[in-house]
Amino acid sequence: MKSYAAVDLGASSGRVMVGRVGPDSLELTEAHRFPNRPVRVPEGLRWDVLGLYGGVLDGLRAAGRVDSVGIDSWAVDYGLLDGDGALLGNPVHYRDARTEGIAEKVWASVPAPELYAATGLQYAPFNTLYQLVAARGSSQLAHAERLLLMPDLLTYWLTGEQGTELTNASTTQLIDPRTREWSYDIAARLGVDLDLFAPLRQPGDPAGLLRAEVLEETGLEGPVPVTAVGSHDTASAVAAVPASGERFAYICTGTWSLAGLELSAPVLTEESRLANFTNELGLDGTVRYLRNIMGLWLLQECVRAWGDPDLGGLLLDAAKVPALRSVVDAGDAAFLAPGRMPERIAEACRASGQPVPGSPGEITRCILDSLALAHRKAVRDAQRLAGHPVDVVHVVGGGTRNALLCQLTADACGLPVIAGPTEAAALGNVLVQARAHGLVGDLAGMRGLLTRTQPLTRYEPQGDTARWREAQSRLAGA
Ligand code: LFR
To answer: Sorted alphabetically, which CDD domains does this protein's record hold (predicted)?
Structure first.
């Protein structure tokens, strides 16, 4: 048996999990969980990265003896370092407003269809490329000598070594998904200095040893290696989808719903761009062909606005509300920014001529129906655009705890849903470390181990899928 610490940072909380892996066993326990609270300062919305690093150190102390450490987090965001390797300011949150209107500026130099054909990335205002163009002329960027994506920054603080892990690099919009290398032409035309980035690292590559000060602070005994994993949390989560064969779709649920397919090559057609599908890079030459859907963020923001009522009670109330009374387009970037979520959802229902949900139970139902509808659309569109049919939908991540959402997703897709594991990102993180140390085989071997060891729940589709088609027709253009 070997033990691996998986640091998994999400938009609302971070955790350090310990995975114990044997030839036919895989157990995951939580060593430490800590909140991730973005902070609004006069310049905008920022990540409290020192607080997160403190949480990582606390977690490693709680984890105890481990054979290696791996870090994954949300994508696209970064810290800038000066020539001495010191962090220049708090990393900007991807929900910060600084990228508003930036894409149009970029497209004036590289037209959107050309940018998509070269990078395969869906339009999202927060792609690192747009963030860097928004930061142009800022004194921080002018003084920066190095850019490290969030998991790479924390890895640097733990080990002193710098790198840019590929799966996360693929969310910058500066990587060519065909060559899996930097897109020098796009960077040059948009004035992005690729020398800011440290050399690319592959999942499984060694990323240094915990520094002496880190060992001292965590009470760990060295040497403890840090291993690059699929450092984009979605890459780790997809690696932990307990699928067999190729005919499956996945939905990684949490703050976001990331719904799509695992492919062996990117889909770079104009039709795919217009449908806003992204081609992010995964393990072993795979492509994560998916669409970002707003996800449980919609509910989290409502719950915050309602003063944090009990979630179980809300879901029970939601289950009593008639299905599909009103739906919103859960893929709409209009829901990206924080604040006033119940009102914004009500306004969207009013604008599309549907009944306006009022009570928390009604709004929760509207959100869950809307998410299931967006899952249906993404799974159907992806199959059509990639010419890749599926028989089953795997739901992983935090949303697996929400039985109503899983059942509605099965009903909407008209396909069985297999829900689990919940801590998919942490498990994918652990398994890539285990593989780097020779404990498990290829992606299929990792998935086989998950299927044999993790509790999974199956939901069969129920009801008439025509109801979902009708609901979709209410969302013109969505
Ligand atoms: C999920 C995720 C998504 C990415 C979004 C922003 O946690 O990593 O894959 O699009 O966060 O970084």
So the answer is: ASKHA_NBD_FGGY_RhaB-like
ipTM of model: 0.99
**What domains can you pick out in the chain, each with its CATH number?**
2-231 (3.30.420.40), 232-420+456-477 (3.30.420.40)
- Concerning whether 233 is annotated as a catalytic residue, the answer is yes
Of the candidates 233, 329, 369, 411, the residue annotated as catalytic is 233
CB of 229 closer than 8 Å to CB of 70: yes
Residue 122 Cβ inside 6 Å of ligand 1? The answer reads: no
Q: In angstroms, what is the span from residue 216 Cα to ligand 1's centroid?
A: 33
Verify whether ligand 1 is closer than 6 Å to residue 74 (CB atom): yes
**Cβ of 341 below 6 Å from ligand 1:** no
Average pLDDT of the residues of the chain: 97
Rounded Cα–Cα distance for residues 473 and 467 (Å): 10
pLDDT of residue 23: 87
Q: Would you give the distance in Å from CA 207 to the centre of its chain?
A: 22
Residues 440, 87 contacting (CB under 8 angstroms): no
| Rounded Cα distance, 91 and 86, in Å | 13
By the 10 Å C-beta count (0-12 exposed, 13-18 middle, 19+ buried), 307 is classed as exposed
Kindly give the distance from the C-alpha atom of residue 234 to the centroid of ligand 1, in angstroms, as a whole number: 7
- Judge whether 8 and 426 are in contact, CB under 8 Å: yes
Tell me: pLDDT of 4 over 90: yes
* Alpha carbon distance 149, 71 (integer Å): 11
**pLDDT tens per residue, range 266-310:** 999 999 999 999 999 999 999 999 999 999 999 999 999 999 999
Predicted TM-score (pTM) of the model is 0.97
Q: Omega before 421 cis (within 30°)?
A: yes
Please indicate whether residue 258, judged by its CB atom, sits closer than 6 Å to ligand 1: yes
For ligand 1, atom 6, which residue shows the shortest CA distance? 75
